[in-house]
Amino acid sequence: MPQSVIASRFFAAENINLTFTRCSANLDLISMYRSIILTFFVFISLNSFGQNDSLAFQFAETNRYLESKDNIVQVKKNKIALLTDSLQHSNFEDRKNEEYKLLVKLTKEYKYFVYDSAFHYGNLALKTAYHLKDASKIAEAKSNISLILLLRGLYKETIDSIQTIDPMVLDQQKRIDFYSVAYRAYYDLSNSRWGYYAPKYREIGNSYVKKIVEEGDPDSFDYILALALKSQNNSASYDVQKYCTSLLNKKDLTPHQIAIANCILGISYLKLQDKEKAKYHLCKAVVGDIQSTTKETLAARVLAELLFHDGDLEKANKFISEAKKDAEFYGSNARQLEISYIQPDIEAAVLKEVEKEKDLVFTVSIIISIFTLLLITFAIIIYRQVSELKRARKEILESNTNLRKLNETLREVSKIKEEYVGYYFNFSSQFIEKLEGMKKAISRQLMTKQYDAIEQELKNYNSKKERENLFEDFDRIFLKLFPDFVNRFNLLFEEKDSLILKDSQCLNTDLRIFALIRLGINDNEKIASILNFSVNTIYTYKTKIRNRSLISNEVFDEKIMEIKSV
User: Fold this and answer.
1) How buried is residue 275: exposed, middle or buried, by Cβ count under 10 Å (0-12/13-18/19+)?
2) 307, 279 contact by CB (below 8 A)
3) Which residues are 549's β-sheet partners?
4) Cβ neighbours of residue 345 under 8 Å, at least 6 residues apart?
5) How far is CA 258 from CA 261, 312, 387, 389, 483, in A?
6) pLDDT tens-digit map of 22-49
7) Helical spans, DSSP H, in 448-462
8) Are 313 and 289 in contact (CB under 8 A)?
9) pTM above 0.70?
10) 150-167 CB burial, b ≥16 within 10 A, e <16
């Protein structure tokens, strides 16, 4: 996340001054949230000190904020959710007064964010003020609603609301706030109506500015802003620059106040045809609007129009789209109407530019196509030659690979034959000697008619023991050829299903079956004959073992065959 986004979150969160008595858990959460953001903000401030402040940098900074806009809005929504939660679960002794304060806070949070919600909470605050029968609170609530109506573009309703307010029941700062709403309403009305009535509305606006001059603090933001807007609406652009520069030199401005001052200053430079400075300050205004989550905004639309007339269509289209999204999000009829005048021209110019690019691309594509055909012709010739070489090389490589595999297989087969053929002759020789010894003994006993001795001689021959000896010799020779067979076999199973042998030189039935398979004996009947089992028993053993493995039954035997001999 860009560092500037974290700074904006700090600004968004720093205004949370809630009086929660509902539960300490929420208070701890807010405290932790603000502390983390404040820490990041200090770090960012140190890192950003001395950064480039050119117009190009401002556009890049604005783009970074636009990319993080949704995250900043989410912080705003979280803050509003905490206020709403506090309102729903509050349990104050003086409930109506505290409820009024929370409703006013919610109204102000939504004021430049979402019209419907701002109007909803503004009316709830007004009803609560009437319930309290407090003239000051009633006037304050009406003043807030008047500003909300004005932001929506409902001029008649705004004037009607202003005319019902008695400013003298308000304290000084709230009275200044009311005058600010009033002069802005009349100035906006003078700029949106037929010129015949404009001077009348402008004069009424000037009268409210005069009240601020008479009652306000000359060093306050509202005081200087009133003079700046008066100068702007009375065509005194140089005075506007003086007042706005004075505002921007202040150290304690909120992002919203910075946005307002930069927007007014940017418009004044635009009137003086200083477009670079106009773009610079309008970019700063857009950033301030994003930081303060202001959706009822002017800067993005003015900047888009300026960029459009300067021929920077891509940026113009981007900013007019942002302005439209903000206006629709807020629900501002006036802003949507203003945008509707310029957006079609921007989109038409963008479309025209796209058509030009298409024509250029078409021309270039024809030229490229001609060269491509020539290249393809040569490429085909070269490709055929290269293909022949590749095919020959591939065949050689495949032959070499097959030869290596064949050599490996022959070496293994030769080793197996050497061991088992030697074992076979040795075993056969021993077996023949046993048979000859038994034959001689039985012949002698037949000649002497010692039939009981013959029977005893036959009983002394233990075929089971002979078969066990056969298996032991088989296991010994197999493990000599495949010393890693048991370990590799166990890798195909989970640890709990691994086979553990009592004697490292003897295989059990499970392993012996797959040892035979590894030697190339795959027929169940042959395996059954060698191990003295039925075919069904061999099949059952193999199925049980395969089902316990980590791999599919289809590739189990392939994995067994991959186990190499020494």
Assistant:
1) middle
2) yes
3) 493
4) 308
5) 5, 26, 68, 71, 80
6) 333 343 444 444 443 443 443 344 344 3
7) 451-460
8) no
9) no
10) bbbbbbeebbebbeebeb
C-alpha torsion angle, residues 264, 268, 274, 276 (rounded to 10): 10
The token pair that represents 292 in the structure block:
């303060």
Output the CA torsion sign for 76, 66, 296, 222.
Answer: positive
Q: Residue 259 corresponds to which tokens in the numbers above?
A: 């946005």
Tokens 């701890």 -> residue = 28
Q: d(Cα 500, Cα 473) in Å, to the nearest integer? A: 20
**Cβ-count burial of 122 within 10 angstroms (0-12 exposed, 13-18 middle, 19+ buried)?**
buried
**Residue 520 to residues 58, 92, 416, 552, 561: CA-CA distances in angstroms?**
76, 88, 11, 20, 9
Q: What is the spatial distance between Cα 397 and Cα 405, in angstroms, rounded to a whole number?
A: 12
Put residue 331 in one of left, alpha, beta given phi > 0 → left and psi -120 to 50 → alpha.
left
**SS3 at position 162:** helix
The pLDDT tens digits of the residues spanning 507-547 come to: 888 888 988 888 888 888 988 888 888 999 989 988 999 88
Angle, CA 347 vertex, CA 346 and CA 353 arms, to 5° = 90
**Helix, strand or coil, per DSSP, at residue 493:** strand
The answer to whether 265 and 249 are in contact (CB under 8 A) is no
Helix%, strand%, coil% for the chain, nearest 5: 80, 0, 20
What whole-number distance in Å separates Cα of residue 535 and Cα of residue 544? 14
Which amino acid appears at position 124 of this protein?
Answer: L
If DSSP codes are grouped into helix, strand and coil, which group holds residue 16?
Answer: coil
**Cα–Cα nearest to 17, from 99, 102, 91:** 102
Q: How far apart are the C-alpha atoms of 542 and 536, rounded to whole Å?
A: 10
Phi and psi torsions of 234, nearest 5°: -120, 25
Q: What's the rounded Cα separation, in Å, for the pair 140 and 175?
A: 8
Q: Which helix (H) or strand (E) holds 551?
A: none
